[in-house]
Amino acid sequence: MYRFLLTPRWWAINVFLLLAVPFCVFMGTWQLDRFEARVDGHRDATARAAADREADPRTARPVDELLPVDKQTVGDQATATGRYGEQLLVPDRALDERPGYYVLTLLRTDGGKALPVVRGWLPGEPDPAAAPAPPRGEVTVTGALQVSETPGQDGVPAAGGLPEGQTGAISAASLVNLVPYDVYDAWVTLNEGDAGMKAVPPAAAPDSGLDLKAFQNLGYTGEWFVFAGFVVFMWFRLLRREVEFARDAELGILPEDAAEDAAEDAAEDSVQDAAQDSREGADEREGGDGAAVAPEGRERRESAPAAR
User: Phi and psi of 53, rounded to 5°?
Assistant: First the structure.
């Protein structure tokens, strides 16, 4: 009954099963590992950000030694010396679930570049008159190093068309169009708010949280395992169908489709046989009448001269 498993068709089906199921399981496991790695990264980044808030400022290093900013250096204590220049406001920034804005001031260093420094946070709508002016003269700032923001990132508005003196994202790409000098591809948030403003706590490194990508990995995990189960289910379904067909063939039971085809063939044969019998009967009747008429004609023709 199971000899059909040795046919080329079933060899191909079995090989596909043996390759597809391990592949689906491997891909599902890989996606699950990616999700767990993101969870671990989020946990580590959260713990690191909390530690950065309590970091000792005496461990601060010059900002040039910490660049470029990566997951290892983000949040580290950085220090820089220079003179404050242009001041900008960063709207739509919430702190402790309260709406407000950042006060961002560019620190022009001796190297010619400017370091964006978030001096603090104020509640309400951005108001240049309410933002404290930066200190004059040379200053040394110390704070947590942060990576440049991207519009649309968590907490970073993507809308443009802001009034003069405001910027949506704290990044070199955005600030280079607002100031006439080079800008560091990083920024610093002061450990203590300047001029009575509230300090902005350092954020975790980007792509280290439970964002949409993490849950996509979890969704892909489920999809791959579903695919593996579907392949096994279809193999068993095909096997059961083939076994039932072989069992019916041994018992002489035709499938419904085959029975209908056989009935149609039998009906056509019956119609053809009836038509053939009808034609043969007509031929016989025509032949019999001719034989009966012919002798009678001959008898009349033969008796006609005797009458004369």
Answer: -65, -25
Rounded to whole angstroms, how far apart are CA atoms 160 and 303?
Answer: 129
Tally Cβ neighbours within 10 Å of residue 217: 19
Confidence of residue 290 (pLDDT cuts 50, 70, 90): very low
Query: d(Cα 304, Cα 308) in Å, to the nearest integer?
Result: 7
Count of all residues that appear for the chain in the document: 308
Rounded CA-CA distance 241/224 in Å is 26
For residues 246 and 4, is the Cβ–Cβ distance under 8 A? Answer: yes
226-236 pLDDT per residue, tens: 999 999 999 98
Cα–Cα distance for residue pair 229/232, rounded to 1 Å: 5
Give pTM, 2 decimals. 0.58
| CA distance linking residue 60 with residue 80, whole number of Å | 10
Q: What is the rounded (10 degree) CA torsion for 253, 254, 255, 261?
A: -160
Contact 134, 141 (CB under 8 A): no
pLDDT single digits (tens) 5-44: 778 888 888 899 999 999 999 999 999 998 888 777 767 7
**Chain centre to alpha carbon of residue 279:** 73
| Cβ neighbours, 10 Å, residue 76 | 19
* Over residues 160-167, mean pLDDT: 84
Q: Cis peptide leading into 128, omega within 30 of 0?
A: no
Distances (CA, A) of 25 to 31, 106, 186, 214, 230: 10, 53, 42, 19, 12
Q: How many whole angstroms separate alpha carbon 261 and alpha carbon 242?
A: 20
